[in-house]
Design brief:
42% strand, 1 helix, single chain, Immunoglobulin-like, alpha+beta
């Protein structure tokens, strides 16, 4: 069972923010490490909130990660190496292709569901 859970609260102006919650009372905050393309992200902060066992986590997006392609950020417990969360930035031409592909897949799945639903209504009606 993980010792912590991390939930994204918002992502605005190049800053990913989340709420880190300890699963056990009285736990201290873990050492958080964030990587993108196997490189560490600098400037990550973990700040105590008024509630015990809860911390605000801020992950700044470095300018090197803003550009064409897909960039996945891994947020890890530095001591155990356990993945707490992740987020992905997609930009440029790769984003257009990925989005068009995803839309085509969603349309195909929606068409399949519509046919199945109509068939079901016809058979039971």
């Amino acid at each position: 069972m993980p010792a912590y859970s991390l939930t994204k609260t918002r992502f605005v102006e190049g800053l990913w923010q989340g709420l880190l919650v300890a699963e056990s009372a009285g736990a201290s905050p873990p050492h958080i490490t964030v990587t993108v393309q196997d490189a560490p992200v600098r400037g990550v902060t973990v700040t105590a909130t008024p509630d015990p066992g809860r911390w605000a986590v801020d992950v700044p997006v470095p300018v090197q990660a803003v550009g064409d392609g897909v960039h996945t950020f891994l947020i890890l417990d530095g001591a155990s190496g356990e993945k707490l969360d992740s987020f992905t930035l997609i930009a440029g031409e790769a984003a257009g292709e990925d989005m068009r592909t995803e839309m085509a897949l969603l349309r195909a799945e929606l068409d399949m569901l519509k046919r199945a639903f109509r068939r079901h209504c016809k058979e039971t009606g």
